[in-house]
Each structure stands twice: as structure tokens, then as C-alpha cells.
Amino acid sequence: KNPSRKILITGGAGFIGSQVVREFAKKYSEYHIYNLDALTYAGNLENLKDIEDASNYTFIKGDITRQDFIQNLFEKHRFDSVIHLAAESHVDRSITDPLAFVKTNVLGTVSLLNAARDIWEGAKADKRFYHVSTDEVYGTLGEEGLFTEETPYDPNSPYSASKASSDHFVRAYGETYGLPYVISNCSNNYGPYHFPEKLIPLFINNIINNKPLPVYGDGNYIRDWLFVKDHAVAIDLVFHKGRNGETYNIGGFNEWKNIDLVRLLCQKMDKKLGRPKGASEKLITFVKDRPGHDLRYAIDAGKINRELGWKPSVTFEEGLDITIDWYLENAAWLEHVTSGSYKTYYERMYRGR
Ligand code: NAD
């Protein structure tokens, strides 16, 4: 039976991408989901163990920056939509290696755009290029105000500059070639399967192992946090119901000062691990600030709420509890990721396929 849609999801072995692939493969048995991922250090097929044998799912190992390969792939499978999440995603890494971010986030996006433009030429109905992006493209806020879809772009890190650039390219392909597209810009995600270089999983891991918790500067930075499954639900809605050529901001209505978040995490971990009150907080260590560090991000998610009826389904406390429990129950996943041994999982899984 022919699938009703052939959707290419890029970066589907990553933190958010694996949630989206899982959500789509499970919910839409009439679609075929193709997951294209280069399996960089951040890509891990163990994230998708539960759906790897689903008949409506195919994994393709490949790099979005290889333009000929991408063009051939689109010609072979004739995807009718793309949900593009593949990216270099860690701000600290972008400070030490900006070019890697230009390559994947800008060049990779443009190579996907070219392929979509070429195979959809003259047949744009029901086609959609969806770019999953970040609120960091808007730069930083002072103590007041929120990012809206009209906030001018003002990126401060090589990561956010590369994502801003890829957003601009997506819009430019809409204007220049009539490519049907939609973009969403989301705040910080947290949840299961998060690579432990990012704050919440790093700190959970360090608390378990009694290692220092490095907090940048004075810890007064403010971020808005969203549970990753709620982001996946928002992506599903924007993909299916978002208006063509529009941007949707997605956020958790959930601002936290870094240091307060770390203290809350410490208190929860003390309880979960049966350690004396205050034990984990002793691990907090203030370290030299990140250069170009944005003071505050906060999202006005009113548009997606009004137009598509989306709002977060869990509170931060609930989401954090689910996340901590998941990391405690999945010590093997954490161990594989921190030791890098998940790399061999792919070889084992896909050898001979
Ligand atoms: P991640 O780093 O966990 O995953 C990225 C995935 O992309 C990995 O599986 C990696 O192997 C793959 N990838 C990297 N380079 C590739 C290439 N050249 N070709 C093919 N695949 C490649 O990232 P994430 O946190 O899941 O973020 C996914 C997307 O969502 C990114 O575009 C990011 O900018 C955006 N985003 C993330 C957040 C967040 O808080 N994590 C918030 C808003 C938006």
C-alpha cells in the first residue's frame, strides 16, 4: 500500500528529532517516515529502539551537506515534505568551531532547500518544507518583554547566527522560488534522551557521579524551558495545520534563572537519591562566563496557542520529575552516551541491511 505522505525528517537520531520521529511513526501509520541522520556525536539510534522495526519507518545514514547525495535521495524517494532538524546544536561548540556550524546549519539547509525546490517544481500542492529553529535567533532580552514572531533577528553566538541564516534562506526560497515552507522558533528543551553536554542532563549526570556542577558567571541568566514531548506535539501541529509561509514561536511560559533551576534540580536529586538535604548543592561551582552570553530569553507563544490551540501539557516540576526518573532508570543509555559506545550500536543494528 502506498503511503499517503512521504516525510523526510532530518536529524531524527538527535534529542528532539527522535521524539518527532517516534511521534510521527506511531501516530501516523498511513505515512512513511524517512529519518536522515549523519550520526554525529549527538545522533544516537538507541533513542529509537522502540520503533526501529516499524514498517512505516526507514533510517538513512547520510550527511545533509553532501549536495549530490541529497539531490539523488530526493529523486529516489520523492518526499512530499521535509521536517528539518539536523543541526550542530551546542552553543559552546559553536564558539570553538564556528565553521562546523556554518557547514551543517547553513550549507546543509540550503542543500535540502535546493533538492526540495527541484523535485517540487511545478507541483507544490501539499508540499511543505518545515524548518525547526530556535528562539536564540532573536538575541537577548532585558528584564522586560517577550520574543514575538515580529522581533527582529539579532543573533549573538555563532550557533544562533547559523540558525538565523538558515531561517533566512528558508524564507528566501519561499519568496524567490515559491517554496511552501513553515518555520518554528522554540525555547530551550529538556527531557529524556538529551545529550549530557546540555545543562539539565549534564547536571543530573554529574550529581549522580558526585562531580562539580559548573554554573556560568553568576547564574543569573534566564531561560524559558519546554518539555521535549510538548515541542514534538507543537511540531506535529505546525506541520499539519500551520499556515504556509508563517513563523510560530514555541515556548513553555516557564522562565527560570539558571541558578534557581540548578538549586531545584539539586533538591529533587537529593530526594531521589536518598542523600541528605543540601548534598547536591555543595557541588555547584561558578565558572568563567561564556563569551557573548545572552541575558534572557522568553517566548510569547500566543500565536501558536490562538491559531493551533497548542499549550504545554506538563508543568516544569512534572517534566523535570519525568526527566530525572528517566535518567535514573536508563543508566545504561547514559553510560553508553558518556563512553561513546553507542557508536557501535549502529554498526550492529544495520550491518547487512
Ligand atoms: P541534537 O544535537 O540532539 O541533534 C542533532 C541531530 O542532527 C543529531 O542526530 C546529529 O547526528 C544530526 N546531524 C548533525 N549534523 C548533521 C549532518 N550534517 N547531516 C545529517 N545529520 C546531522 O539537537 P536537538 O537538540 O535535537 O535539536 C534539533 C533541532 O532543533 C536543531 O535544529 C536545533 O537548532 C533546534 N532547536 C533545539 C532546541 C533545544 O533546546 N535543544 C531548541 C530550539 C530549537
Automatic annotation (TrEMBL):
<dbReference type="InterPro" id="IPR005888">
    <property type="entry name" value="dTDP_Gluc_deHydtase"/>
</dbReference>
<dbReference type="GO" id="GO:0008460">
    <property type="term" value="F:dTDP-glucose 4,6-dehydratase activity"/>
</dbReference>
<keyword id="KW-0520">NAD</keyword>
<dbReference type="InterPro" id="IPR016040">
    <property type="entry name" value="NAD(P)-bd_dom"/>
</dbReference>
<feature type="domain" description="NAD(P)-binding">
    <location>
        <begin position="8"/>
        <end position="321"/>
    </location>
</feature>
<dbReference type="Pfam" id="PF16363">
    <property type="entry name" value="GDP_Man_Dehyd"/>
</dbReference>
<keyword id="KW-0456">Lyase</keyword>
<comment type="similarity">
    <text>Belongs to the NAD(P)-dependent epimerase/dehydratase family. dTDP-glucose dehydratase subfamily.</text>
</comment>
<dbReference type="GO" id="GO:0009225">
    <property type="term" value="P:nucleotide-sugar metabolic process"/>
</dbReference>
<dbReference type="InterPro" id="IPR036291">
    <property type="entry name" value="NAD(P)-bd_dom_sf"/>
</dbReference>
<protein>
    <recommendedName>
        <fullName>dTDP-glucose 4,6-dehydratase</fullName>
        <ecNumber>4.2.1.46</ecNumber>
    </recommendedName>
</protein>
